[in-house]
Every structure is written in C-alpha cells, then in structure tokens.
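Service request form, structural biology core

Requester: graduate student, group of Dr. S.
Request type: structure prediction, single chain
Budget code: on file
Notes: please return the result as structure tokens.

Sequence provided:
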Amino acid sequence: MMKTPRPLRSTIFCHLTELLSVEDPTWEMIAMVFLIEMLGCTDLNEELDRALEIFPTYLRSQCLGMPSLVLRGILRLTEMPDMARKTLVLLPYIMEQLQGADSDASAMALPVLSNMLRLLEGKMSSLTALALADKLQPLFNDESDTVRELSIRLFQNAMGLVVGAEKKKMKKEVWDSLLPLLFHLHDQD
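Core staff response, request fulfilled:
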C-alpha cells in the first residue's frame, strides 16, 4: 500500500476516515488498523488533520485494544516534525487514558505524553506537568513493570518542567509521591 501512487493512497485514507466517522462496530477495528498503518505515509499531511478529529472518539472506545491502537498512531504522529504540534489538541484525551484500568493503553499513553511534554512551552508546559504528576502517582503501583517504569520516568521529567507559582504545588506532589517511589527503589527494573 505504501508503494501505491499518492492520489490512490489519499483516496483510501479519506475513505477510511469517512468509514470511521460513522462508528460502525463491524468495521471500526479493521479500518483503524489500516488508518494507523497509513500514518507512516509522509505525503498525507493534509489528510492527517481528519484523523486527529476522529481519534478522541476512538480513545474512549470500549472495543478491546482500540485505545492502544489509536495511541500507537498518535505516538507515530508525535514523532513527525510537521505533525507533532497538531497532536497537542489530543492531550486531554490521552491524559484520560492514564486513569483507565487498561495497562496496555497506559503503557502506550506514557511515551505519547512524554513526547507531547517536549512540545509544550512556557506556562502551558508547567501547568500540564503539574496536572500530569497527579495522574502518574497511581501508576507507580501498576501491575505492569513497563507502566511503573515509564510513569516514574515521566514523573521525573515532569518535575523539571514546573516553574513559577506551580513549583509549590509540585513540591507537594513530590512529597506525596516519595513513599510509593521509595517502595520501588529496589525493584529489579
């Protein structure tokens, strides 16, 4: 599919986004898999905005594996220089993934959030890091080693981004997190 001519890829991508905008459960997983794979096409920049519009719906999907699949696609977009900043509109939806019971979705959301934090600037960076610190603490005790490790690393990165008046609030978050972090001091990971 990657080797097909650009106009045909563009048409296929547009049909997939139309199919996904209808929310038909019989086709949504198949269509999303194809859509996510097509995100690797570097010449579909104009069409990618449409994908960003439908992702929030599928991040909240009850379909097993759908949020993780969408997060994998968003991770790919955050690594594309010309698309990375556009993904910031999805930040609140991705932060919601940290509060679900799905460790796979949390494991995918953490690298996405790490990439997004690097894209934020100034006050927005500080406020987001503070909000994120509060959501990361419960993940320190997740059953998945990967989620625990990624959440602790992201917490460390978030601490360094807080500036100004938010530093006092972050200090409280750090104090509240010290005991859970101390318990994990001798984890194998």
